[in-house]
Specification:
CATH superfamily: 5'-nuclease
Low-confidence stretches: none
Radius of gyration: 15 Å
CATH topology: Rossmann fold
Strand order of the largest sheet: 1-4-5
Order of helices and strands: EHHEHHEHHEHEHHH
Strand content: 5-15%
Largest sheet: 3 strands, parallel
Structural class: mainly alpha
CATH class: Alpha Beta
Amino acid sequence: MPPKPIISNNSPLVALLGLDLLSLLRELYTEVWIPEEVKAEFLGTERIPRQRVLKDAPWIKTVHLTDVEDVSTYVRSGLDLGEAAVFALAKEHNAQFVIIDELKARQHAARIRLPFKGTLGILLESKEKGLIDAIKPLLIQLQDNGIHLSESLINNALQDAGEAN
């Protein structure tokens, strides 16, 4: 029986790409799936360089949804199209977990008891496994890249990483 897939939304891909650490996903999970809607979002800006990124990362596998009605149901519940497709693909393939950052999507995952991680969870797991040395400089870089992180989220992540002052 093949392992359950891990499915990512767009924002963690963009965040890790901005850190030049997209390869952490391969090192941690071997393969990560994205629905076509997430691929379209990812390629929505900087199309040519991001096409190259996906071409150079064959372990990010774009997977076609067979039940598009599920996407509509999730959109009606308030999720954006990419998030809805992530949830639909996760349901369709009994995902191990999803990688999402947006609060509304994380709350939805918790409600339906679908395990999830965000970018900071990926960084914490990477540090635990010795793939990166520290997360503090990466959190600063994420903020410099325009990603909003609340002070409590930063403090909790630093605490969990053993980097709190």
